[in-house]
Amino acid sequence: MKYNPLFTNKESKAIDSLAIKELGFQEETLMGMAALSVFHANEDLWKTAESIWILCGTGGNGGDGYSLAYILHQEGYNVRCFSTAPNKSEAGKFYESLVTSVLGAVGNVEDFYKEWEEAKEDSILLVDAILGTGFQGNLSEELADLIETINDSDVFFYRLSLDTASGWNPYNLGKKEETNVFVYADSIEELGTRKWENVGFIYEKDSVIPRYYEAIGFPIRTHLSNVTFSNRYYLEADPETAIQTLKRKNKDHKYSAGSALFYGGSDGMEGAILLSEQAFSRLGGGISKIFSPSLKISSLVLKEDLSKMTKTSSLAETFEDPFLKKTKTIVVGPGLTQYPNDLSGWSVPEDLRLVLDAGAIPTKGSPLPKGNQILLTPHVGELNRMTGKTHHSVQAAYDTLIDYCSGNYVYVLLKSFVSLLVCPDGSSYVWESPNPKLATMGTGDLLSGILARYLSLDLTIPESVHMALSFLDHSKQLEEPYPSAHQILKSLVELV
């Protein structure tokens, strides 16, 4: 799996302190390395600006801003620096003094407003270095007014934030509007560590704003201790591996190519379980069987394909079917209208992977089945129903699920524009690749079938989730703006 560690604000501070106090890095050196990495990462962007304004705060984030201002000036750019107040750190004071010596002066907030009133529309690139990831609490009235001016002004054609957008706090989402004042950054440059609190940064509905990571020499690989790391990872797409993994080998037979059992499709909802199974079989699955409470299931299945196996039954009867003993994966839920009581307390066979989707997502208090490889795949509404809590951010969902998953020994994949997998051992994985083409009826059923396909190949649940999401990412390339789930599946089948 391709993944990178995500650090909380507290963990990032611990690594920063470790680098300075134990490894002997000079704070000025780290600030300089941070600024240099941002400069080189955005060389094409700087060239688009008539003028670059950098707003610097009083902490380390402000120090990074001063350091960047110095580099930009020396490289010939028209740069202006403004301070909300004098910098408090020794390293920050060093760069503030350096900038003052080369620019002649560092403006204050009052100067910022005066020059802003005279600036032309779309003439300024703004760098936000006001508040870093360590900021907690409420903004002062002065800073809130400043940030709202930045957001509302047509003077700034681009807003680049260092480390995090000043004022951003994912735990304020869903609260009163006045607590949600933050810079509407067009992009964020994360310095030294990838930041957990930045995951899901949005200011437009379901639109994740780009974040770029810049290495500055932090010891993030050699010091992944329990103190400095909380087992959160950022997943990167691996589309080619996802495709190659699905391709059958010459020596495969129907079981080694992957087997799966599907249960779902209440009356009138049979299409959901059929689509889920179709995703599994058309992507190379060797053998499968569909069970459903619907009396129509056999006629619907055999009408499409006489080679399919299908049966009308209760879920309890499915557990007794000989096919279950031969298969590795079972998907329950697509097309069901309510949580099956037969799942409550069911002891899942040791080597069987169970995927619970849609109608098989339990409500709060419903007893779960017992096993060591159970994956629940709720969307946000189902997660709220499942836990009895409302969640407005990925971070809030994580806080709930870290206890839920360990307490029930289950894996949970939260499906949203940012997807989150939380594992019973406390590890978690974030997938941040919004795909509006999946916002259509049936794509959840599609995902459950694709997950079953990877699970049937003896991949672990985290590996299967990574491969399934990477594979589904190919649907972004469809020319159809609003494809149906069947159109998406057809395009994916062509890849393998």
UniProtKB/TrEMBL annotation:
Give the YjeF C-terminal domain ranges. 237-496
Family matches, as CDD domains: YXKO-related
Q: Does the keyword RNA-binding apply?
A: no
Coiled-coil residues are none
Q: Which spans are transmembrane here?
A: none
Q: Which InterPro entries match?
A: CARKD, Nnr, Ribokinase-like, YjeF_N_dom, YjeF_N_dom_sf
Which coenzyme or cofactor does it need?
A: K(+)
The entry's free-text remark on the cofactor is: Binds 1 potassium ion per subunit.
NCBIfam families (alphabetical): yjeF_nterm
State what protein this is by name: Bifunctional NAD(P)H-hydrate repair enzyme
